[in-house]
Amino acid sequence: MVLKRKAFKRVVDWKNQSKGKTALLLNGARRVGKSFLAEHFGKSEYKSMILIDFSNPPKDVITIFENDSHDIPLFLTKLSLYYQVRLHVRDSLIVFDEVQLYPKARQLIKHLVADGRYDYIESGSLLSLKENVKDILIPSEEEEIEIHPLDFEEFLHALGDEVTVSFIRECFEQRKPLGQALHRRVMNSFRTYILVGGMPQAVIEYATSQDFEATDNIKRNILALYRRDIAKYAGAYKQKVTAIYDNLPGQLSKKEKKYKLSSIDKDARFRAYEDAFMWLSDGMIVNPCYNATDPSFGLALSMDHTTQKIYMADTGLLVTHAFRNHTFTSNELYKAILFDKLNVNEGMLMENVVSQMLRVNGHRLFFYSRVDKKKRENHMEIDFLITHKNKISPIEVKSSAYKKHSSLDKFMNRFKSKLSESFVLYQKDFLLKDGVVHLPLYMTMFL
Question: How far apart are CA 286 and CA 320, in angstroms?
């Protein structure tokens, strides 16, 4: 089964626009589909391709890099001979997979691009950590594309539905409801997406078997892989990374979702854990969301990086992570959540999936929090802030049963001169009320 990834078009656009003047860097979490995308692209768009996997490189290939990279024509000839692949000028692709494990290959990109005969793709994770770039000159000839888990539209495509999203988009653009019957069907599919997630292996398993338990086992394997990566690559701060990682579901299940280090160690300070948070973010395992203390179009200008919420990059992995020690079999557990029969903090899942969808759309994540112990009426908590048309849009994520949005009202009144549209994302159909756009959660993909 070949998944339709939107990133494929972006890679094709890179090829057509770059014409060999840059290399492409695919950056993303482990098992998010980078290697498959690069290989599928190479086989589809070129006469020939060489893929070098630096997670298990042949010794002879490393010898070629070490001894012959000063002579690019000789270097390329030896690679062609070793892999028994004929290289065609301007119609062959060379892929450096897991390039972070062999930084010298990344540095060589400058000279390979200057040679100009072939195209180059690098793929990897943790690409900006200092141990993965030390002693090398990062090439300016790179263009980067971030690869994320499948979004909701890609998930529906995997299930054979290629028509629904176009109608949802039409309703979003015209600001009109889908109608209750269609909304219920789409919302059921969206809840399934939340449970399965967007990791390619998990999506393929669910699309072919409809078996939550088999899908859950794949996600458990991915989570175990992340833990092994932490132990192997997080260096001196691996214990802190592990502590943050293990504590993520507990933090997100609370009403107050700002990450509290005191839950790990009552004496913990952010400065001691800063590298650990950065490791998880750089590996794209999590999506950090920072407090913007003075909301304006330049949200990053008032970013308080010591006050943050930490969401998991894939909500399906969060479900498995949160219930990893649950006594139910996976199918029973998933059905209980799917049909709202289990006492679970649903807000944790809904807020996480919104963070995931905003991040896929290219937004950096910000929220707004103001605590005034003297005047309770000044207290505000806005889940997300995004920029739109040189202004900001506040976003509140609510359950379908909510009755008011007092924080949003206060925020709109305080910052009205800086605002574009204000949104409530919830589980009901589209509604425009009191100057607030109420969107069903799945419409987040259009923000």
Answer: 15
